[in-house]
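Hi everyone,

Forwarding the result from last night's run.
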Amino acid sequence: MAGTTRASSPSVGHWIAGGPLRPVGCDAGAVNDALAPALVPELLVADLDRSIGFWCGLCGFDVSYERAEERFAYIVLGTAHLMLEQAGVGRNWVTGPLERPLGRGVNFQISVADAGALAAVLERAGVELFMALETKWYRVGGDDVGVQQFLVQDPDGYLVRFQSAG
């Protein structure tokens, strides 16, 4: 790609159009529009501090920016982006009753460097896994691709599938 620079860090690389290498994410204090994914789920949560403790304290995400007065945080792990917003504060878009577990019918797949290591961190912290670590093969086009994966529910019941290359 002409005019792009590949940024590298231990956890993630980004393509930055037309410019010098520059940090993005938590250290930059805001999300770079050139790197923002086209889809960023916003999860309503009961307790923002508890959610940040799970997502950032245990799962490795960083807070890119927050709006304390709205109890809102934008969190990032590599190219996985999520917004967390405490229900009942600020402007919430609620289409029906919020009953636990939240997010029924959806799971969020997040690629990490080592799903096994993350599963061990969660288990040591006393977090129950929804599905234990497994190696699973999926057909992708004409190929079979192996991944290590496990599922866990966040403090509000959202189902998260962490996976890494098998």
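Residues 1-28 have pLDDT under 50 and may be disordered.

Cheers,
N.
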